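User: Hey, my collaborator sent me this sequence without any context and asked if I could get a structure. I don't really work with proteins. Can you help?
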Amino acid sequence: MASAPGAAHSLRGLTVHAVSELYVKYQDDLRAVRDRQREFLRQRGKSMKAQLDDYEAEITYLLLREYRPERVVEIGTFYGWSTMWILSALRDNGTGHLYSFDIVDRVVSNVPADLSADRWTFTKGDVRETLGDTVGSADYLFIDADHGARFARWYVENVFPKVRSGTPTSVHDVFHGRRPKPISEGSVLMKWLAERNTSFFTPSAAKAPEVIEQLSRTKKELGLDTPVRESRHNPMVFFTLG
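Assistant: No problem. I've predicted the 3D structure and written it out in structure-token form, which is a compact way to encode the shape of the chain:
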């Protein structure tokens, strides 16, 4: 996967400086996506329950632009906010396909046809029964589903081993505070990463306020500081499997 000079070649080396560079590199395309997402949210109102906050959504978009994955697997879509950001990146890359899985299908009526086009496959049902071998060829793995410890144990034991070594991965709802909540998805994931000495990057305002501070300055300098949606949770973590 191609990478800009100075940017991280994998999430193992991801730093706030590298993310800031990606904001600069893709600022024009990102600005257009932000405007479209903001307008979409305004039109849909309460019928679109957006989960990712701006930093999480934007960093996901920027990493997908930089890494140019051919196959993205998304576990958990809810109303489709993350799905739209991922599909926007694939569209702007001019390549790639998204495979999304969820037990509910609200996402189907929310994702615009021009985004889904021929770059999206959605499968409804319990992902533990429907995922199959899809994840084995994933170039990017995105998880935002059941946030309980049981589900987390399922995917670290049954999904992660199937993913190719070196695959960029992101998991939502980990750092709502400086530490994950006890008996939660976040606590299971952090233990798993620590046991393997796997580093991670997070834009969590609670866990890494210095990251938010620097990215906030970058966004202000680029004129990207007007919120798409109001939220400061930022609990996602980004890391490389294998």
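In plain terms: The longest strand covers residues 97-102. You can pass these tokens on to your collaborator as they are.
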